[in-house]
């Protein structure tokens, strides 16, 4: 309904039941007698439009606050929540059938995110005045970096004793120890004397001299390695100097700490920090959707060498596998593309790669073009994007590159070797054999699939000429020149299978076991197999639930055997992932029915040399953990962790190894040093965004992360987050015209930023990797261990934020120059709406 007619909303509602009645004109004249004839005519035309029959399907999933379900009306299936169903039925009674008016009313219910956002804009002035007196709800949390906890060579004991410190000028200063170790001290001292790093101090332990036999003439030399200053005092971190050996004092200190550490308690702050840090990593690594690809440099040539897979990036591996199940991800990483990225400034080493594939004669042909390559071929840009986006195999990948060092592959525990043999073994650096395998690695490329329906629809609207499609062969990857082989390793995690799984793709037919579903067969293909289970991908969505019994048939495998009948083998669903089309199944075996188990056992034994196993058993022990450590030290996007805080879901921590990116500048706004602010995910000009709340209440553990795209208007000249940041999810806009208007307004007033938000439910942490440190804390402070465990289990959500601003601007036809200008903070220019010709401008 247009704004001109909004003021006559009540009259239109009153006349809806009469629109198809003979006396409509008479009733209209009576109800709207006070209006001019022209206005009555407009109302009549609007009612005629609303009364036209409609055949459009309504899908409100992700667009309303309620939980949507299937709703069938006259043979059409809609996805509506309770509010929408009530409105649908009410409006249908008014019009007598499903009409345009019904469609629009259902799309504009009060709990629709777009409607809520529009109302917020209309009442922005009054809302802002109310906010001035209301306290702001904090959405900040600490920024951490994986592996940044201190690792100690020896135990520290909390112990306070009086000491006397002598400076190089022989000035005497009284102080008190905080903790003590064989080779170091932390002391508390007044603020009168100004110490400097590397200053030499000689210390006499006056508080110990009366009880123990110590040298009262010659003190022990230390060096200042750290200073923490506050208003009332200073805390010095001191390190032993051994230029004047004191073996008697060393032996005394070792005996003293060993004999009293249970009484005075060892200092465990670094261990507590390490457990927190590692737990966040345990939650993050199985759930982040990107794939780290490790790049090696040999004789000046760059090539991908390894890739690390988890349950959430497996679709990427599946996509880049050809008909022989060979991973061809290397096509995306030519030497030229990698060299171009490496030559960029470190904070700008990223690009977008647009991909599709073509199947001919049962062979897969891959095509890809980076953003820069398309800018260099302006005449082909529109053809490539328009044609590729119309194909089912269309993908958009963000590729980011960062440097790495081999030293980052080692991540010891926070404990000294002396604690136990297990700790000593865990603290050992990588073996020479492992280092030799990794020695040429220099960079990590992170690949993230950022394809979505909104972007795809936009690109597919580009007009193309079929006679130009043949020119796209310049972006094809020749099959006779396959890319370098990439070894794939999986993140080691507690929920890995007990059996080795092998890659095998073959046709399957799934039948739901039950009378109500008789005759319901869904075709699909297996992805991997083991003796007692397998994973399959179906061509249609499976609407059943976990633990549902099903029957599987293997028509292609049946041709290989006459010994076993591979029809209707019993399985049970253990997990459902993806969009409801990826199933993890367990064979149901007993003394009467074990065909599936016996067949796959024999198949694997007879074809072990031909079947490719996932690398659960590493050819070089420790390589998977080393690659995992390398990525953990180089997290390129922003990971975030959500805790359950009463009935709310609040930020608990954020992680990133980057420092100067556009995204981090946004998240740092109105946040204390060392923290980031997730205000853009929670609120937009005072209107709450309940994406996190809704998603975590409705998604299950081990499901694929939910992805949504967020538009942000950022004006860093405003001091508070609520005035500097205006955000809206792309599916809350009515159409692309509204989205483009938002982008132009954002650039005109500051900076536009687009973010892909991924959010998943956490599983349980891998306690095996934390066990040594947990046991250590439990030995000396069981209450701290219990308290820590409760905190760790309180983390319920994990997510990832990926900056996709440049791709969104390209999608909406902004030129290369406009995209570059928007990277400045703040953007000091105003960009008007562009046309399709901008896409072709270099």
From TrEMBL:
Pfam families: PilZ. InterPro entries: PilZ_domain. Signal peptide: none annotated. Residues 152-239, 495-598 form the PilZ domain. Residues 117-140 are annotated as: Disordered. Coiled coil: none annotated. Transmembrane segments: none annotated. This is PilZ domain-containing protein.
């Amino acid at each position: 309904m247009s704004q001109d007619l909004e003021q006559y909303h009540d009259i239109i509602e009153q006349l809806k039941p009469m629109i198809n009645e003979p006396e409509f004109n008479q009733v209209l004249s009576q109800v709207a007698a006070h209006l001019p004839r022209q206005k009555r005519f407009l109302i009549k035309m609007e009612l005629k439009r609303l009364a036209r029959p409609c055949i459009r399907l309504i899908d409100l999933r992700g667009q309303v606050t309620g939980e949507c379900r299937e709703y069938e009306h006259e043979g059409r299936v809609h996805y509506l929540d309770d509010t929408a169903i009530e409105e649908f039925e009410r409006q249908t009674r008014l019009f007598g059938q499903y009409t345009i008016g019904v469609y629009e009313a259902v799309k504009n219910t009060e709990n629709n995110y777009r409607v809520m956002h529009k109302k917020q804009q209309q009442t922005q002035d009054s809302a802002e005045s109310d906010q001035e007196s209301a306290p702001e709800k904090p959405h900040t949390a600490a920024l951490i970096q994986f592996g940044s906890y201190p690792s100690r060579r020896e135990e520290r004991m909390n112990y306070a004793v009086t000491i006397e410190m002598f400076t190089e000028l022989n000035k005497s200063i009284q102080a008190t120890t905080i903790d003590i170790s064989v080779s170091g001290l932390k002391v508390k001292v007044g603020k009168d004397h100004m110490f400097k790093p590397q200053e030499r101090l000689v210390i006499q332990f006056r508080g110990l001299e009366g009880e123990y036999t110590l040298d009262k003439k010659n003190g022990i030399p230390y060096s200042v390695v750290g200073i923490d200053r506050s208003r009332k005092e200073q805390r010095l971190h001191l390190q032993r100097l051994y230029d004047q050996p004191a073996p008697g004092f060393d032996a005394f200190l070792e005996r003293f700490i060993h004999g009293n550490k249970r009484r005075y308690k060892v200092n465990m702050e670094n261990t507590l920090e390490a457990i927190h840090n590692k737990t966040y990593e345990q939650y993050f690594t199985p759930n982040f959707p990107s794939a780290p690809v490790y790049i090696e440099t040999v004789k000046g040539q760059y090539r991908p060498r390894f890739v690390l897979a988890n349950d959430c990036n497996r679709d990427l591996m599946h996509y880049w596998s050809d008909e022989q199940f060979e991973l061809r991800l290397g096509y995306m990483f030519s030497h030229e593309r990698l060299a171009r990225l490496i030559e960029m400034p470190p904070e700008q080493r990223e690009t977008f790669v647009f991909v599709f594939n073509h199947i001919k004669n049962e062979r897969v042909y891959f095509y890809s073009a980076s953003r820069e390559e398309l800018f260099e071929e302006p005449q082909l840009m529109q053809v490539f994007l328009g044609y590729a986006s119309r194909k089912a195999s269309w993908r958009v990948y963000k590729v980011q590159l960062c440097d790495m060092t081999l030293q980052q592959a080692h991540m010891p525990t926070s404990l000294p070797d002396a604690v136990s043999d297990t700790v000593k073994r865990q603290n050992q650096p990588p073996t020479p054999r492992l280092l030799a395998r990794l020695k040429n690695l220099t960079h990590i490329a992170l690949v993230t699939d950022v394809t979505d329906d909104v972007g795809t629809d936009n690109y597919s609207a580009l007009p193309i000429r079929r006679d130009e499609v043949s020119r796209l062969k310049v972006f094809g990857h020749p099959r006779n020149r396959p890319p370098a082989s990439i070894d794939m390793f999986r993140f080691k995690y507690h929920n890995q299978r007990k059996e080795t799984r092998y890659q095998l793709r073959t046709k399957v037919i799934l039948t739901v076991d039950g009378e109500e579903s008789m005759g319901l067969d869904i075709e699909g293909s297996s992805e991997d197999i083991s003796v007692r289970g397998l994973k399959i991908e179906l061509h249609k969505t499976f609407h059943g639930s976990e633990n549902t019994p099903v029957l599987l048939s293997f028509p292609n495998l049946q041709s290989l055997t006459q010994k076993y009948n591979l029809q209707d083998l019993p399985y049970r669903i253990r997990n459902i992932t993806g969009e409801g089309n990826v199933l993890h199944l367990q064979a149901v075996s007993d003394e009467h029915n074990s065909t599936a188990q016996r067949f796959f056992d024999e198949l694997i034994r007879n074809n072990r040399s031909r079947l490719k196993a996932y690398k659960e058993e590493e050819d070089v022990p420790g390589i998977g953990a080393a690659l995992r450590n390398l990525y953990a030290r180089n997290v390129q996007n922003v990971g975030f962790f959500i805790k359950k805080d009463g009935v709310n879901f609040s930020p608990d921590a954020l992680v990133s190894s980057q420092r100067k990116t556009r995204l981090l500048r946004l998240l740092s706004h109105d946040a204390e040093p060392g923290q980031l602010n997730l205000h853009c995910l929670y609120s937009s000009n005072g209107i709450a965004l309940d994406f996190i709340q809704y998603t975590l209440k409705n998604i299950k553990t081990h499901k694929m992360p939910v992805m949504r795209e967020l538009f942000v208007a950022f004006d860093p000249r405003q001091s508070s987050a609520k005035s500097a940041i205006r955000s809206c999810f792309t599916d809350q806009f009515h159409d692309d015209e509204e989205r483009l208007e938002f982008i132009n307004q954002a650039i005109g007033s500051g900076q536009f930023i687009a973010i892909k938000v991924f959010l998943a439910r956490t599983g349980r942490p891998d306690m095996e990797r934390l066990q040594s440190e947990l046991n250590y804390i439990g030995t000396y402070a069981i209450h701290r261990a219990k308290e820590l465990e409760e905190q760790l289990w309180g983390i319920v959500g994990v997510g990832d934020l990926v900056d996709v601003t440049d791709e969104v601007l390209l999608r909406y036809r902004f030129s290369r120059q406009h995209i570059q200008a928007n990277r400045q903070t703040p953007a000091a220019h105003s960009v008007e709406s562009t046309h399709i010709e901008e896409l072709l401008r270099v």
